[in-house]
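[job 4471] stage=fold_predict status=RUNNING
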Amino acid sequence: MKRISTLLLSAAMLFGTVGAAQAVDIKAKGQFEFVFGWGKNLGGSKGFNSNAAHQDFIARQRVRTQVNFIASEFLQGVLMFEIGDTDWGRTRNGNTGPSSGGALDADGVNVETKRAYIDWIVPNTDLSIRMGIQGLALPSATRFNNPVFDADVAAITASYKFNDMFALTGFWARPFDAYNDRYADNGNGRRLDDSVDMFGLVAPITGEGWALTPWTVMANIGNQSGYAEYIMAKDNLNGLGRGIRDVENDRAFAWWLGTGFELTMFDPLTFGMDVMYGRMGDLEGLNVGARPDGVANPDNNFTARARGWFLDARLDYKLDWATAGIFGWWSTGDDAEDQRYDANGNMTHAKLGRMPVVGVDTGFAPTSFGFSGTKTRGDDNAVSQTGMGTWGIGVQLADMSFIDDLKHTLRVSYYKGTNDRDLARGDGPFGSNTRYGVDSLYLTTGDAAWEVNFDHQYKIYENLTAYLELGYINLDLIKNHFQSDSDDAWKAQVGFKYEF
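[job 4471] inference complete, writing structure tokens
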């Protein structure tokens, strides 16, 4: 990373006058990413052809720039800005806001604040503090990303390293505050909580050739926070259009407990595994989507709870020319017998057998098409961004290299759903929104898929890499699912990434 002295002028223009504060070093890093190519049947709530089979050509870009304002080794401020994802030829919201500016004449007002925080060390201690909008992720020993929480969020984290073996990180995060106030008035003089507060601890223990990373998270969830609407339907977070409902219990308590385990003492044979459990108590007064029979019913308020297990593992053997590996994952699923309805067919209680999730911007990434493993701005998450309600197994040859600077990964995987197949016959707790809103499909025990990835990357220069990602998914849905059949999905996309 090179010092960018010319950013001093830009920083002064952006933030106004520069006072007589202590001089700082300014360093920058970032990425320019571009992707071009074709994809077909890239997911939908009911199947790959839920909106009719189609083939799309994409031309897309994204730019990220991070600027570090370094006062000393004990204090710095960090800003990260993003432009994109911007699809060439398209614009949104009157050319203003995220992803706008791709159409003729460009000129989009589209610079997003991705991160804004400070890092500092408590004087005369080894305690480091980070506060502000930051990237925060729970551990993943498999490197597939944690499916519970891995996103940008407003938070305060504190980390302390006791010695080479023990460390501890604690955090408080506020991912949701729908009405910009702790409470919202329901119009009847009753004030309902509208925020979500998360508290977590991560305690990595590192030995010679092994590592254990236990972690735990607790959350207080307000029923007017927008959490349920975001997770189940990916609605806006600002509370608009949701309405205020008078319910007895305005908060739900949720908690997660997990650990990651890595074994490297037998290198070149390495092993990683994550095990986690989470549950959310009754969250009342919810209304996400239509009635189970598909009829719109805005008065269909119900109570939801969720609890479930998730585990994943991978075993790799490093060869001279590639890394051979086997991987897999498993999650509990929903049971049709756990859902309760009144005499009019309205849902009163939805008990999800899937582990609750909070923020999965990065996404669970065992594959590069059906899940979140793409290395470009190309298409992925065609099946799921969380992995909840599914199980799968796969094999791969990763980072195959026969020519300098050129690598290939070949991966084959098979996965199925773990949700009750009866929930795919119109009896799901949220109609077509049975799945978590960040996922594309809701797979049951009768649904299965094969996926093949053949991905390549070539380092053109030290800072410029070209990618070619080829993906194919064969999806087999049970009869009388949301629909009776589903086309296959595929992609062939080329990407370029300049990193500085």
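[job 4471] summary: Residues 28-499 form a domain with the Porin fold (CATH 2.40.160.100).
[job 4471] exit 0
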